[in-house]
Write a structure and sequence with these properties.
The complex is a heterodimer.
Chain A (H helix, E strand, L loop, with lengths): L3 E6 L11 E7 L2 E8 L7 H5 L4 H9 L8 H14 L5 H30 L2 H22 L8 E2 L2 E2 L8 H24 L2 H7 L7 H6 L4 H5 L7 H4 L20 H24 L16 E9 L2 E9 L5 E7 L1 H5 L3 H4 L5 H10 L4 H5 L3 E3 L4 E4 L1 H18 L4 H8 L5
Antiparallel strand pairs in A: 1-2, 2-3, 4-5, 6-7, 7-8, 9-10
Chain B lengths: L2 H11 L4 E8 L2 E6 L4 H11 L3 E9 L3 E10 L4 E10 L4 E3 L9 H11 L2 E3 L34
Parallel strand pairs in B: 2-5, 6-7
Antiparallel strand pairs in B: 1-2, 3-4, 4-5
Chain lengths: ~400, ~150
């Protein structure tokens, strides 16, 4: 006799870094059905983008997600450049590739840590995040920011790489990071406990992968051979030789293997780009975008990010569609979780590296009385206020700060 | 399957039912069809020709809603976009769920943001908006006012 019990989890739960809601329907230990509700992170980015200029939109989409923050602007500039077939300077393309691949490195490290954490393997969690730090330092040296790098702009990149710092980047990547990835490869792939825990768990067959049109490492772990970096090369991905990592098993272990081995490919690409960085300008100085549709994509750490931009000749998009990889990967839970035990559900759900803020694309609102607590203007003001206070602490006078920021911030 | 083969197969199999064929560039093809042919077309391109369903984009026009279905041919770097128009007065389109599961969420999203009904979709509940969102208010239509305060957000 079956006795079904519904276990709600979320939308806010200590184990979740972002809000989501799962209704797991279980029969004894086995999950027999799952219902997922999202929407707690919905910010209306697509609507907002219609009121922003092309320069502002690149910033806006950068703020969709903090972890893969360069993926959305990357796909967005690809889309806008496709409308007019803009020729981007070679050096800018190399810098874009470097940013994109460094991001994959830090994002896969982050996932590895989280996966270890969900499994109770906290050593992996601590070490992965420790070795993620040097990558963020490289980002800080390149762009000035550890996250939200603001490198992309239509027609080029915003900041140049200082050639004299390349030896430092290479030292960090090859002397610090590579041994760390070697270590993780050994610690994860050769660990009998992890193998026993993850092999054969949460299997997504290739047929289901195709049916649900999943993307990125989730697809490649199931033997679905897709990677837009290779299939439709953009930036400088066609200049060097690198491999698409493919596994056949489709379980959680295969997804971990794909991510770890992909980090080596990313290192290969970044090293090539740093060695062969050409000179020249970094911006094509685009002044006008013609009317038309543009489709752009970028292989983000979690899969292909897709942007479609429609322009009518003004300086802002008429329609801007954003599709994050998790949007396609998420519904495949129905196939992977059902039939497994509740204990395995968490790691199966984490295995696609879900990203809710991407999926739902701000405004803070008090739900009880529908009152807006912070609107966009208020948030900008808070941010300016913080800069002002910091400036005062650093010893700037009010006059100097007023000059720098354009006005006095109360 | 190379690019010319994709183009000839689509033209042969869909002879007479293509309203407009726009060869934009090496990697992009746009095809306008009637909305009653949508499921047939999706079956052809997804099941028979092995394209990957990328996503659907809806866009608002004064009298109708335009829906573009993007299909990727990954080996050759080609995106085929199939375009249909649904008049706002009778905004009903066949669901693609019988052909591919990947369309489930995007149809729910287009339903709540643009007000398009999808026939044969088993579970048309809201995806992103709250359950108590008022009926007949579609945030991504151009006539929707962003500043209106009456909705729960």
């Amino acid at each position: 006799m079956s006795h079904k019990v519904t276990i709600p989890r979320g939308p806010y739960h200590p184990l979740q870094e972002e809000p989501e809601f799962y209704k797991l329907i279980v029969d004894g230990e086995r999950v027999v059905d799952i219902d997922v509700r999202i929407g707690w992170n919905h910010r209306g980015i697509e609507k907002l983008s219609e009121s922003k200029s092309f320069d502002q939109s690149a910033y806006l989409v950068e703020r969709i997600c903090g972890i893969c923050s360069t993926s959305h602007p990357f796909a967005f500039v690809n889309a806008v450049e496709e409308i007019d077939d803009i020729k981007v300077p070679e050096r800018a393309l190399y810098i874009r590739t470097i940013t994109g691949e460094l991001e994959r490195l830090h994002s896969h490290m982050l996932w590895l840590g989280l996966a270890g954490h969900f499994l109770g393997y906290n050593t992996v969690f601590m070490w992965a995040w420790r070795y993620r730090e040097p990558i963020l330092d490289v980002f800080e040296a390149i762009s000035g920011n550890r996250n939200n790098y603001a490198m992309m702009k239509v027609g080029g990149v915003r900041r140049d790489i200082d050639d004299s710092e390349i030896p430092y980047y290479k030292k960090v990547l090859n002397d610090e990071l590579r041994p760390a990835i070697d270590m993780f490869k050994g610690a994860v792939l050769d660990d009998p406990v992890l193998a026993a825990r993850l092999k054969g768990v949460g299997v997504l067959s290739k047929e289901d992968a195709v049916d649900y049109s999943v993307l990125g490492p989730t697809a490649r772990a199931s033997g679905y051979d897709i990677d837009v970096r290779r299939d439709e090369p953009y930036a400088t991905y066609d200049r060097m030789k690198w491999d698409v990592i493919l596994c056949r098993e489709g379980d959680v272990f295969a997804k971990a293997v794909v991510r770890i081995l992909e980090m080596y490919e990313s290192l290969k690409i970044v090293n090539y780009c740093l060695d062969n960085l050409p000179g020249g300008p970094i911006d094509a100085n685009v002044k006008q975008v013609s009317p038309g549709d543009g489709i752009g994509h970028h292989e983000a750490p979690r899969g292909e990010v897709f942007h479609m931009v429609r322009c009518d000749g003004t300086n802002r998009p008429v329609r801007h569609k954003v599709r994050a990889p998790t949007f396609m990967n998420f519904p495949s839970f129905k196939k992977t979780v059902v039939g497994e035990t509740i204990a395995d559900a968490t790691i199966i759900l984490a295995a696609i590296d879900p990203c809710y803020c991407c999926t739902e694309r701000l405004q803070a609102i008090d739900h009880r009385n529908n009152k807006t607590v912070f609107d966009a203007q208020k948030m900008i003001h808070l941010s300016q206020h913080k800069t002002w206070d910091l400036g005062r602490t650093m010893g700037f006078s009010e006059k100097e700060l007023t000059e720098r920021m354009g006005r006095k911030i109360e | 399957m190379d690019r010319t083969k994709v183009v000839t197969t689509i033209k042969d199999r869909f002879d007479g039912r293509i309203k407009r064929f726009y060869d934009k560039s090496a990697g992009r093809i746009y095809i306008d069809i009637d909305k009653k042919d949508l499921v047939d077309f999706a079956r052809l391109i997804f099941k028979d020709m092995g394209a990957r369903f990328n996503i659907a984009t809806a866009a608002d026009h004064p009298e109708e809603v335009e829906i573009m279905y993007h299909f990727n041919f990954d080996g050759i770097g080609l995106i085929v976009t199939v375009r249909i128009y649904a008049p706002k007065k009778k905004c009903k389109v066949e669901s693609l769920l019988p052909v591919m599961k990947g369309a489930e969420w995007i149809e729910r999203e287009i339903h709540e943001l643009f007000g398009v009904e999808f026939k044969n979709h088993p579970d048309m509940k809201p995806l992103l908006l709250p359950d108590d969102w008022p009926k007949n208010k579609y945030p991504l239509r151009k006539d929707y006012k962003l500043s209106s305060k009456q909705e729960p957000c």
